[in-house]
């Protein structure tokens, strides 16, 4: 049982607690001078802390028993630390994931593994994951934190399926809510014309593909001539995100542009050779994104550099315009033209109607016209 005592020089009662190999003291912040009731409250608090410590010791002993049983059944090497299991998971998935996706998973799991590097799988708890989440949230934005948690949850669900965990520690945690709205928006046509005019010929082509197909920069950079069917006037490809098979009709303006391009003898030649080479070398589109940002800066639409947040860490201020804004622009223009949500969703390749709505930015004039179309009573 815990005890309490008055500590010389302190006005508070101190709880005397038993650790596995020592005794420790902790202030109750309850004043000794407040009488008998204060002493009783201090004793009750000390007893509560002692029970918590006992519960923790029992949990540690239970984890040790689990690890011992696993070791006897499957060999000593079967007792996995969390980083060891994450390494095994990554090795097993290397051939299944796209290279870019694999690198993203590797980075996220390496960080999580480092945060719980001494824990075995049987010891992993929701508190481990919560601490990782909260520490990460001090450095990066909410959306990034939620992406990390989603990856960790997916991997630990496999651990549950394979019998390494009784339940997924991530199940007890909710996604963090963004504290600010997404600042990204669609281009106006005047802005887009200005950017197109300042761009190089290859970037002009990629801008047209971004606007008239609504696809991501990574997928546009990966397009080859074999991706285009000029008879049916369609582009056929598999997206880098989600491995979704897409068949996108080619807009008449885009067809005119394609027919004006010099057709190579090799059908597997990339449509945009410089961009294709950059992505093939780096495995990601950040270099291309920065290059497009320079074009936006030349047009006076953004700063030339990303601006770090005032606080120390990795979070940066998100620009309201980027190449991805072409995806917002295509979605918005289609909606303003009266195209139904399901058709736009299929054309752009959004996974859900909820995502499709995020990309829709209807201007005030269109909303006013829609409102005015309601009949009079």
Notes on the protein architecture:
By secondary structure, the protein is mostly helical. The protein has 3 domains: 3-73; 80-172, DNA polymerase, domain 1 (Orthogonal Bundle), CATH 1.10.150; 189-224 and 271-372, Orthogonal Bundle (hpI Integrase, Chain A), CATH 1.10.443. Helix content is 52%, strand content 8%. It has 15 helices and 6 strands. The strands form 2 sheets. A 3-stranded antiparallel sheet has the order 1-2-3, covered by helices on one side. Strands 4-5-6 form a 3-stranded antiparallel sheet, with no helix packed on it. A hairpin with a 4-residue loop joins β4 (228-229) and β5 (234-238). α2 runs antiparallel to α3 (99-115), α4 runs antiparallel to α5 and α12 (325-336) runs antiparallel to α13. The N and C termini lie far apart (77 Å). The model is unreliable at 307-314 (pLDDT under 50).
Short structural description:
The protein is mainly α and 377 residues long.
